[in-house]
User: Which sequence fits this backbone?
């Protein structure tokens, strides 16, 4: 079963060719990060226009890399939500046109489910080892969700952020520290250069359940930076050692918050394993801390598959098509789509 997966929910234009939900024959990603770095964040109108400029070339390259043509496919799959409305429209309309012109079924995929299914693109056979049920922590720029997965397509939301997502906390923190956009990689790099010595940041806590909160942590960083005249950046430049120490303490607080709540949820739900996914799952400190503290096997996609990509959409679509599901031609985008509604 061969799937063309298309992903345009935010600022990556991506397409991949996937076989049987496991094997990647091609995975092409055109990033807009450099474009949006000028603005310190994603500009929706700019993102959608860039998707229009690149989507045809990205799909063509994916098919060429896979040595495939449209007639070789079994379905065309695409993210229909959540995400930026203009960006989603480009991907959905492209996928519909390709599927309709080729006489193929069309499948809309939940972007959040796609992040989870990135784990199935690794070598491990998750269905058998560790097997269901699984707890999934989805951490990205727009989402921080804990999802109980009892089987393919069976999701229950058990925890989420009450305010800002962990990825947004990284982005805003990097802006305060003058480290650029997107925020995760430069904060990790700065933290790795730190010699320590910075006072810990307060750990966000939400009483009861398994929810997260990061808005207070962002405020704590901003106030500390202001008190030291680091923000806005001084005319004579920032003290790199101080920036690195603050980045280290800030990253540690985010990671500790994510891991503490997740480990508690693992114990309460009695799952067999944990899937750590989403763009923030590429963070080395989070991966290491979760592996160290979690009592069940932790499955983490390699960093390239943590960020937005078409392969994860193709993997998720495989299981929907296998179970006899496809989408109607009038499927519309759902920018606010959730997962496993609570």
Assistant:
């Amino acid at each position: 079963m061969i799937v063309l997966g298309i992903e345009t929910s935010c600022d990556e234009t991506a397409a991949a060719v996937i076989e049987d939900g496991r094997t990647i024959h091609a995975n092409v990603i055109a990033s807009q990060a450099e474009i949006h770095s000028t603005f310190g964040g994603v500009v929706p109108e700019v993102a959608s226009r860039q998707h229009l400029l690149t989507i045809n070339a990205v799909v063509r390259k994916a098919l060429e890399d896979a040595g495939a043509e449209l007639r070789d496919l079994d379905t065309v799959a695409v993210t229909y939500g959540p995400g930026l409305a203009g960006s989603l429209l480009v991907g959905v309309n492209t996928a519909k046109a390709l599927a309709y012109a080729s006489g193929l079924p069309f499948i809309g995929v939940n972007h959040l489910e796609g992040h989870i299914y990135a784990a199935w693109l690794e070598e491990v056979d998750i269905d058998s080892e560790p097997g269901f049920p699984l707890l999934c922590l989805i951490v990205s720029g727009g989402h921080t969700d804990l999802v109980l997965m009892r089987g393919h397509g069976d999701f229950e939301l058990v925890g989420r952020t009450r305010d800002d997502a962990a990825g947004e906390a990284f982005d805003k923190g990097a802006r305060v520290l003058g480290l650029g956009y997107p925020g995760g990689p430069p904060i990790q790099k700065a933290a790795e250069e730190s010699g320590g010595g910075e006072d810990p940041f307060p750990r966000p806590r939400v009483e009861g359940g398994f929810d997260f909160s990061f808005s207070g942590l962002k405020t704590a960083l901003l106030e500390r930076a202001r008190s030291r005249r680091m923000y806005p950046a001084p005319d004579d430049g920032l003290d790199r050692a101080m920036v690195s120490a603050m980045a280290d303490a800030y990253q540690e607080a985010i990671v500790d918050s994510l891991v503490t709540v997740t480990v508690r949820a693992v114990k309460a739900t009695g799952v067999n394993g944990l899937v750590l996914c989403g763009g923030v799952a590429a963070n080395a400190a989070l991966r290491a801390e979760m592996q160290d503290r979690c009592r069940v096997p932790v499955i983490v996609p390699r960093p390239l598959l943590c960020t937005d990509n078409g392969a994860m959409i193709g993997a998720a679509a495989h299981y929907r098509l296998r179970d006899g599901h496809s989408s109607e031609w009038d499927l519309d985008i759902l920018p606010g789509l959730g997962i496993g509604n609570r």
About this structure: DSSP finds eleven helices and ten strands in the chain. The mean pLDDT is 95. The beta strands are 2-7, 12-19, 23-31, 75-81, 106-110, 134-139, 144-151, 154-160, 273-277, 298-299.
